[in-house]
């Protein structure tokens, strides 16, 4: 056991006095504090298996040390995060990077750490060893039916693995696109994608969801066949009630109004979930909230408004996940930072005075509307998050505990300096 369970108690006892003062100061001003704390305690964000090791760019990869080399070790890492913050109770697997060899044993191992299996991700953007057909020119949209069938079969196989693990969702992201004008017949590519997804949808268990993720560009640079939320929504609508759009914050063209996209997808009942990360330029996959925390807050503002209007539970109605890549920081610390930033934005959005905001909107009082939003955004909610952690047995300050306990050093000792996580 890398993390001694008593260590959290000792740590919390040491910080309790300081925390209490900060919490009392901010909580006096908030009328529905207990409601917010309850919501914060419930709110969980899934961790992708591929974010637990060093990412890398197309120019290089500078490995960290003590990375999880096996699926068990990846689950162990998420268990570690969850023990520290009690906010990351699920792992999302990517096949074939994470083939479960003995699903029952893995399920047991994970549940012993309080972890379950979130969305399953298929991979038709890389060729695997021994694969018959290449995905160089796409997968589900390919001109050759044999390539499409191979990609369809892979997705069905991923569903089967997910069923064994107790997952309830298949997440499909396609690299399929083109890099040169004239390369593709757009309508044919879309129709092929649709009929391939329809075939996969037919194999989806009754209580599963299918998430269709979009991305504006990369790895191809002229067109992406599922390039934006319109194309994803079109597919999800044609597929049926179990299909939804997945929004990855890094997958838009610069300055896209993501909060407006989210608001309308929710209105249509077609928002499936999120991949949280942050970016300055493109799909930078940086720590959530490190560049545009106000945007993250505005997204949560729309999410809460839309979910409350439809009676969707905040903690279980949508798929919340991080999709980030870690090149400079320790992946586990970076993930703790992302979870914290996401929950800060969530807590701030819970503070918005909705009634006054509606009144301001109905009176075209632009100044009041802005003041109301910024009043919530500028509140320091960190003591609220800490209090929610304290009440669930998590650490008051997970990052400092991770560091003072030398957790990475212990992982290096156990796993070795050169262990490398499978993934991107
Ligand atoms: C693609 O950029 C993406 O965001 C998709 O979600 C993939 O599944 C993930 O990254 C990992 O490659
Ligand atoms: Mn993603
Ligand atoms: Mn991405």
TrEMBL record:
GO MF annotation list: isomerase activity; metal ion binding
Can you tell me which residues the record assigns to a coiled coil? none
| Boundaries of every Xylose isomerase-like TIM barrel domain copy | 100-285
Q: Which UniProt keywords apply?
A: Isomerase, Manganese, Metal-binding
Keyword ATP-binding assigned to the entry: answer is no
* Annotated InterPro entries: L-rhamnose_isomerase (IPR050337), Xyl_isomerase-like_sf (IPR036237), Xyl_isomerase-like_TIM-brl (IPR013022)
The signal peptide, as residue positions, is: none
This protein's record includes keyword Manganese: yes
This one is known as L-rhamnose isomerase/sugar isomerase
Gene source species: Sphingobacterium detergens
